[in-house]
Design brief:
This protein is an alpha/beta fold and about 170 residues long. About 20% of the residues lie in helices and about 25% in strands. It is built from four helices and eight strands. The strands form two sheets. A five-stranded mixed β-sheet has the order 4-5-7-6-8, sandwiched between helices. A hairpin with a 5-residue loop joins β4 and β5. The two termini are about 35 Å apart.
Length: about 170
């Protein structure tokens, strides 16, 4: 349990290369200390940084995403395509994700796509998914898998899908 008292501030620090950390700051005493130390991956783990990728879907629509690859292996990799939880408005954001890092540390490439309907690319991009959950949104995922195969990151038969909520529907 975290015990915050009057005069203290809880500070959250986020990064793309380590888990979110929480600190307690107390200006009156000049105190700034870690409140909840944690590292699920262990101190010896080398965190992999994502690269931004872009490809054209079958109808010419540009799709972007993030690709993590295991630093200790050569391609082709087994791959997990991690899908957004929401149909609209939520897109893949740059930042640390323990699940992604766990997969990468265990030899999987992780591909996270901002398919049609994802946030962060404007209202027009979100509206491209309206009425198209079974077609163009799914094609974006399939075409992302094809892109990864063509680029040599993975092979046919070595790709799995992972998602919750809308991501589970898509999987």
């Amino acid at each position: 349990p975290l015990d915050i008292t009057e005069g203290e501030i809880l500070v959250s620090v986020k990064s793309d290369v380590e888990p979110e950390r929480f600190y307690i700051s107390e200006k009156a005493r000049g105190r700034f200390e870690e409140a909840l130390p944690q590292n699920k991956l262990g101190k010896e783990t080398q965190v992999q940084v994502a690269q931004t990728i872009r490809f054209k879907s079958r109808d010419g629509q540009e799709v972007e995403g993030r690709l993590y690859t295991p630093g200790h292996q050569q391609a082709p990799f087994k791959m997990v395509i991690v899908l957004n939880n929401k149909a609209f408005g939520e897109g893949e954001k740059w930042g640390f994700n323990g699940d992604d890092q766990y997969l990468v540390q265990n030899g999987y490439a992780v591909l996270k796509l901002n398919i049609r309907g994802s946030g962060g690319r404007g209202e027009g991009f979100e509206k491209l998914a309206f009425g198209n959950f079974g077609t163009t949104t799914q094609y974006d995922i399939i075409d992302g898998a094809r892109w990864a195969i063509e680029q040599g990151y993975t092979q046919a038969g070595s790709i799995g899908l992972w998602g919750a909520n809308f991501g589970a529907y898509s999987a």
